[in-house]
Every structure is written in structure tokens, then in C-alpha cells.
Amino acid sequence: MQNDSTAANPLLDFSAMPRFEDIKPEHVEPAIRSLIDENRALIERLTAEPGTPTWDGFVSPMDEAGERLGRAWGVVGHLHSVFDVPEWREAYNAMLPEISRFYAEVGQNLALFEKYKALHDSPEFATLSPVRQRILGHGLRDFRLSGAELPDDQKPRFQEIQEEQSQLAAKFSENLLDATNAHAEWVSDEAGLAGIPDDVRQAARAAAEAEGKPGWKFTLQMPSYLPVLQYADDRELRARMYRAYATRASELGKPELDNGPLIGRILALRDEEARMLGYRNFAEVSLVPKMADTPEQVLGFLRDLAAKAKPFAEKDLEELKAFARAELGLDTLEPWDVAYASEKLRQARYAYSDQEVKQYFPEPKVLDGLFGVIRALYRVDILPDEAPTWDPDVRFFRIEKDGADGPELVGHFYLDLHARSTKRGGAWMDSARSRHRNTWGSDTPVAYLVCNFPGPVGGKPATFTHDDVLTLFHECGHGLHHLLTQVDELAVSGIHGVEWDAVELPSQFMENFCWEWDVLQGMTAHVDTGAPLPRALYDKMIAAKNFQSGMQTVRQLEFSMFDLRLHGEVDASSGPVPIERVMALLDEVRREVAVMIPPAWHRFPHSFSHIFAGGYAAGYYSYKWAEVLSADAFEAFEEAGAGKGSLLDPETGERFWREILAVGGSRPALDSFKAFRGREPRVDALLRHSGMVAQA
Ligand SMILES: [Zn+2]
User: Fold this and answer.
1) How buried is 347 (Cβ within 10 angstroms: 0-12 exposed, 13-18 middle, 19+ buried)?
2) What torsion do the CA atoms of 3, 9, 12, 13 make, to the nearest 10 degrees?
3) Which UniProt keywords apply (predicted)?
4) Please, which residues bridge with residue 460 across strands?
């Protein structure tokens, strides 16, 4: 299919790994444009064809063309993230609107929807593999949730609802940001700064100076607000900051920044959308593509966890109150004292420095440890390999397993560990290529693993904090999900098609190994002495990990329950929901699960961006949900390793690979979990790992 002009463009070469050394910003526009044209022409041709479509004649060519575009644009997006120089930023942004327009157009293409439906209803459907049937089902579901099946006279209204929702979400964020920036606390006397760390003071002084004023300016931005609440000895300052923060974007501040009416309107629109699609409420719509089946099931899950966590939260709070009374002279613990007293208690009890821990985690030892865990669990080898990269610091590896005729290639990954000025922050795993086998050929998967850790200095290897090590294992868990897949269908291989509330299972699962004494002994070596992590330091790390886990858990449960019930129980069928109704529901939830009840003037919903301006509506529960799955899965390894001195049990590892990692999105995540664990998920392992275990 390649003509002369495309043959010369390295972005259009899909024969092997991306040619990072040859690909230049000027290749982007012609390559992406030609791939979009190719896709558009194909869709036009296929939808114009008369007769019933077939898998090989319709889905396969669609997949093939889609994969080429996805892979080429994936390279551009990747370079935009890891090599963000002006020319690449420009090349990326120049094509971004066009690519978004193309994907939106495909999602709303009714002729395409009709073709998928015709194949789904044809005699061929019964002859397709269950995986292919599932892929078609997902495709139709996504079209339906975008309103494709509504009667023609309802479609304009559905479109209006979508547009108004995105406008309201944007306004919600803007109000919150403006309200956050609208307030400042000024301190004129140095004595008023007592307790506040130096770097925070300096930033506050610089902020005042920037306005040509004396004194110190503290703001409601996290890096200023949080340290004041944690460290400022001046209780009045903490109280004022707390109140300002808690009432942001509400009717208690500037009327034009009040998010209350927006909340009411967003809820009404979501309710209307749900009813148009034939559901009882928005919580049901949100759960359609998720692992959880019904709002009742999720609520039951949250209540079960709450019942078990609440006694520990109460204990945490009692302990904090007693400490505040005895050590800090605070007879009543007010909400603006909680962070302050907690920080003092944490220091008194579990003080150790990240700096101390870091000396035990030099990079080569950590990588050896990580690869060793993977080798022991899955009996695969990780070997250095060669491929063009975007930076000399990037490494490339191949994964092999033993086959009947010698080593067999499983997949490849790039490892880009160190921070650079051209790399966006954070850590992530992304797909460079997905496993597939089809009429047009087959490919093994390739992943990008990207972190922002410190690099080596002064001839010594880089050393990582324990948090860094957790991040590395987490991203590697996503990577293994992508790389160890055995699914041949692109749409559900690796992490593709995995339910949103189950995607974090393999990643959080891997984190658990970083808290195991035996595993840590094999992956730590003091950077000067070579000694492994001492037991006393390890014990402190574990204790600090579980500090106030009861209180933290019930807080997350409060948010989750409020979100779910708001979208499932509050009647919004007769127009915007009054904010009093929203606040009353939050009070009800707090009476059930919270241990610390905020003052009546607290306006939490007005800043709950996750659900009003992010993608988490009726989905906030996913954080805890996935944590339960990963902890419960890890418990299988603890059980298998009991009495053997190591939980790196290859038989359990083989089963985890086969039932969870290998199958990707090819079957429901709950089926995969049950196939691995032999039963439904339970919350007990998470409670135990968080130190919430009833004392006998
Ligand atoms: Zn993750």
C-alpha cells in the first residue's frame, strides 16, 4: 500500500521498532495526514458496500488501518512527552485538533454503527470466537452510550446535553481555580511563622515581594496551604486558612464563583442523559463499562469495608486526641488541628528520613531485584537488547521464555528512568505496539516505561527513595499486563478493553513486593557498605506506612459513597438539584462512615473536581475497589509462600499470568479474578496489609 512519498517517511515504517533516530518533526504532518486519509477512505468504502459485513472483510481492515494510525500517532505523542523540545511540541500540537476531530467523527459515524450492528445480527456472529463476540459487543455498547441508537428527534437534545456538560465542567474547574487564587493570608510578624519550614517561608516571602509588599503571603495552593496546616504553631492562622479553603467556590465567597448552582445543573443533565439512554440514573450509566455491575453492589462493597475500617478510624482519632491533649495542650481537637497534631504524632513515633532509606536503594540493585522478582514469578528472562531510542540514557530490553525449540520472544520494553528537562513529570507505562495476530500478520508487544527519578551523580549510581521503588514496581505491573498478554485480538490484548475499575490491579499488585522483608533483602545494598536494609529501619517503614490508615480509609469511603449515592439516589428529574439536598446527603453519609465531622459551613462538594470536572462521576469508588483486588490477589502469594521462606512462588505466578495478565480485556475482570483466586474478592487482605487487624 506504500507509495514513494510514504516509503521515505520513517513514521510510516511499521516493519520493526520505531526509527527514533530518523523520525523528525517534519515527518509528522504528512504521515498523520496520509494515515487519516487512508482511514477515512476505508470507512467510506466499507460503509458504502452493500450487503452484510464480515469479520475478515470489515473488522480486520478497520483494525489494520486504525492500528497504523494509532501506532504512528503514539510515537508522536510519546516524543511530545519525553522529548518536549519546541519543534516537537509544535509538530504535536499542529496535528492534535485534526486527530481529535477524526476520532470524534468515527465515534459518531452512524453508518459505521449500522455495519457493526449488521455483523452482530448476522449468522456469522454465532461462528465467531467468544473474544470476537465480546469485541463487537463493546463496540456497539460504546456507540450506544454516545447516543447512536436514540430516535432522530432526540439526538439534537442529547448532543446539547453533552456540550452543556463539558462547558459546566470547565466552568467548575475555572471557578475553583479562581476561588483558590482569590484568597491569601498575610503574616506581618516573623513570630507568626513559628513552626513553618524554611522553604515554605521563603516561598511566602517571595510571593509578598512579587507584589512589592512586606511580610509573608500564604495562599490556598497546596504547596503553601498544606505545610501551614501541618506545621504552623499559630492556631488562628491555621483556622483562618482552613475555613477559606473549605468554603472555596461556594455561596460563602464571591457569588460569581459559586459552584453550587453548577452542581445542581450537572446532576440534572446527567440524570436526563441516563433516562434518555434507558437507565434509571447516572450511576447505572457510569457502571456499564466497569467491572462492578450495579450501584447496589458497589454500595454493599463500600459499606462492608466501612464497617470493618471504622473501629480503626475511631482508634486513630482517640489516639490523636489523647496525644494533642497531653503533648500539645489542645483540649479539643478542631478540624484545623488534625493535620498539625498528626504530623507531630508521626514525627514522635516513626521518625526516619527518606535520605537514610535512600542509601539502601542504588539503581542497579533495585533493577536486579525487580527483574529477579519477575523471573522468579513467571520464569521469563529479561535481557538487554538494541533498538534506536530518543535519548542515550534510555535502555531497551527483551523478555524471553523457554519454548519447545529454545528461547521464545515474549515482548520488548524501553526503560527511561531519569528526569530530564525535556520530559514531562510523573511516571507512566504506554504501549509502543500491542500484541496481535490477524489476517495481515502478527506482532509481539512493546512497552515504554517512563519515570522521573534522579540520575547518577559523581560517579556513584543513582539512589532511589522507597516511593520511587514503589513507582517503578507499579509501572512495571502495568507493563507486564501489556507485555505478558496472550490475546491475539488487538482490541482486547494487554491493557486494551480492561474495565476501568480493574486496570490498577496488576500495578498495585506489584507494589506489594516492595513491602516484603525477604524481597527487600535481595534488592537493597547500602551504597557505601553494601549492607542490606536493616530490620529496625524496615519496621519503622512498615509502621509509618500504616499510620492513621483507619482514618484515611473512612475518608476515601465517605467520598466514594457520597459520589455514588449522589448519582444514584438523588432525584434530579424535575430540574437542577438544590444544593441543600446535596449537602444533606453528604451529612447522611458522614453520619454513617466518618469519624471526624467537619463544621456545618464546610463546602466539600464545591471543590470535588474528580466527579464534577473529571471523569470520576459514580466512579470514585474505583480507587478502593482496585486496591481490594490487588491486595486479595497478593494474598494468594502469601498463602503459597507460607512456611517456604519466600512468597515468590512460580506456580501461583504461572496462574496469575494465565488467568489475569494473559487474558487482558478478552473476558470480564471478575471472571479473571475468580479464575485466579477460586472465589469472589474479599476486603480482608487489604485491611491486613493496612494494619487494620483486630487484636485477639
Ligand atoms: Zn497505575
Assistant:
1) exposed
2) 100
3) Hydrolase, Metal-binding, Metalloprotease, Protease, Zinc
4) 457
Measured in Å, residue 263 CA sits from the centre of ligand 1 at 29
Per the residue annotation, which of 67, 272, 475, 499 is the catalytic one? Answer: 475
Full-model pTM: 0.89
pLDDT in tens, 364-417: 999 999 999 999 999 999 999 999 999 999 999 999 999 999 999 999 999 999
Which segments of 42-94 are extended strands (E)? none
Ligand 1 midpoint to CA 631 (Å): 15
Cell 528537562, located at residue? 421
Query: Rounded mean pLDDT of 643-647?
Result: 87
Contact 73, 102 (CB under 8 A): no
Residue 160 annotated among the catalytic residues of the structure: no
pLDDT at 105: 85
Single-letter amino acid code for the residue at 54: T
Q: What is the DSSP string of 189-200?
A: SGGGGTT--HHH
* Cα end-to-end span (Å), the chain: 71
CA 476 to chain centre: 14
- Rounded CA separation 416/474 (Å): 15
Closest CA to 20 of 472, 382, 386, 478: 386
For 410-447, what is each residue's pLDDT tens digit?
999 999 999 998 998 889 999 999 999 877 678 999 99
> Dihedrals φ, ψ of 221, to 5°?
-70, 140
Helix (H) or strand (E) holding 693: none
Tens of pLDDT, residue by residue over 479-499, are: 999 999 999 999 999 999 999
Please tell me the distance between residue 427's alpha carbon and the centre of ligand 1 in angstroms.
9
The set of residues, in sequence order, having a beta carbon less than 8 Å from that of 493 and lying 6+ positions away, is 434, 435, 436, 445, 485, 487, 664, 665, 666
Ligand 1 centroid–CA 504 distance in Å is 5
Residue 589 neighbours by CB distance under 10 Å: 22
Q: Which amino acid is at 640?
A: A
DSSP string, 491-514: GGSTTTT--TTTTTHHHHHHHGGG
Tell me how far the alpha carbon of residue 451 lies from the centroid of ligand 1, in angstroms. 12
391 Cα: distance to centroid of ligand 1 (angstroms):
24
| Distance of alpha carbon 207 from alpha carbon 201, whole angstroms | 10
Query: What are 654's three cell numbers?
Result: 504461572
* Neighbouring C-beta atoms of residue 189, cutoff 10 Å: 9
Residue 204: name the closest of 179, 183, 187 by CA: 187
